[in-house]
């Protein structure tokens, strides 16, 4: 079965390849239709769904996956949030969310001021491309949960929903 993922980000691509055992996976840069820094669960979900739908529209894949990272501001502070969507040619949409971790106020304040998490994390860690490696979740969990692992969990839930639906329709 041909699959597509709406990203070139290694953490996202490897999550899909690992869970679906896909050697031949189409990776695509597609528009999320949301801001560069999604600021709610709703916006982050919308970005994941849009990425998955845009993959199907721009490829001949049978299934596509969109994975989107964002943040959610709560009365307890700002948390990272991550969502995924799997879309089929039958217009079925499956959605799953990932782990959350509280961001330090110094980072949250920069995001509230309009910056994007990836560059802020690069500055904070004095490193490059944190979003393509351990991600903020890896940094703030002391690498007990990396971005790739978190996305694998989301993709595993998407795969399970899809398989359940295929068996029970």
UniProtKB/TrEMBL annotation:
<keyword id="KW-0546">Nucleotide metabolism</keyword>
<feature type="binding site">
    <location>
        <position position="31"/>
    </location>
    <ligand>
        <name>Mg(2+)</name>
    </ligand>
</feature>
<comment type="similarity">
    <text>Belongs to the YjjX NTPase family.</text>
</comment>
<dbReference type="GO" id="GO:0009117">
    <property type="term" value="P:nucleotide metabolic process"/>
</dbReference>
<dbReference type="Pfam" id="PF01931">
    <property type="entry name" value="NTPase_I-T"/>
</dbReference>
<comment type="function">
    <text>Phosphatase that hydrolyzes non-canonical purine nucleotides such as XTP and ITP to their respective diphosphate derivatives. Probably excludes non-canonical purines from DNA/RNA precursor pool, thus preventing their incorporation into DNA/RNA and avoiding chromosomal lesions.</text>
</comment>
<feature type="binding site">
    <location>
        <begin position="60"/>
        <end position="61"/>
    </location>
    <ligand>
        <name>substrate</name>
    </ligand>
</feature>
<dbReference type="InterPro" id="IPR002786">
    <property type="entry name" value="Non_canon_purine_NTPase"/>
</dbReference>
<feature type="binding site">
    <location>
        <position position="60"/>
    </location>
    <ligand>
        <name>Mg(2+)</name>
    </ligand>
</feature>
<dbReference type="InterPro" id="IPR026533">
    <property type="entry name" value="NTPase/PRRC1"/>
</dbReference>
<feature type="domain" description="Non-canonical purine NTP phosphatase/PRRC1">
    <location>
        <begin position="6"/>
        <end position="157"/>
    </location>
</feature>
<keyword id="KW-0378">Hydrolase</keyword>
<dbReference type="InterPro" id="IPR050299">
    <property type="entry name" value="YjjX_NTPase"/>
</dbReference>
<keyword id="KW-0479">Metal-binding</keyword>
<keyword id="KW-0464">Manganese</keyword>
<dbReference type="GO" id="GO:0103023">
    <property type="term" value="F:ITPase activity"/>
</dbReference>
<dbReference type="GO" id="GO:0046872">
    <property type="term" value="F:metal ion binding"/>
</dbReference>
<dbReference type="GO" id="GO:0000166">
    <property type="term" value="F:nucleotide binding"/>
</dbReference>
<keyword id="KW-0460">Magnesium</keyword>
<keyword id="KW-0547">Nucleotide-binding</keyword>
<protein>
    <recommendedName>
        <fullName>Probable inosine/xanthosine triphosphatase</fullName>
        <ecNumber>3.6.1.73</ecNumber>
    </recommendedName>
</protein>
<dbReference type="InterPro" id="IPR029001">
    <property type="entry name" value="ITPase-like_fam"/>
</dbReference>
<comment type="subunit">
    <text>Homodimer.</text>
</comment>
């Amino acid at each position: 079965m041909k699959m597509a993922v709406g990203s070139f980000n290694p953490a996202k691509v490897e999550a899909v390849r690992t869970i679906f055992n896909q050697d031949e996976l189409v990776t695509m840069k597609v528009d999320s239709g949301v801001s560069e820094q999604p600021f709610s669960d709703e916006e982050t979900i919308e970005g994941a769904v849009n990425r998955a739908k845009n993959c199907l529209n721009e490829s001949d894949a049978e299934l596509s996956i969109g994975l989107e990272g964002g943040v959610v501001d709560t009365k307890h502070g700002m948390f990272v949030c991550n969502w995924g969507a799997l879309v089929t040619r039958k217009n079925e949409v499956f959605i799953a969310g990932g782990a959350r971790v509280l961001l330090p106020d110094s980072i949250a304040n920069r995001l509230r001021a309009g910056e994007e998490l990836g560059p802020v994390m690069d500055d904070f860690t004095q490193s490059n491309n944190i979003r393509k490696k351990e991600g903020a979740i890896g940094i703030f969990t002391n690498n007990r949960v990396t971005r790739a692992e978190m996305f694998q969990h989301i993709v595993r839930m998407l795969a399970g929903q899809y398989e359940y639906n295929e068996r029970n329709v």
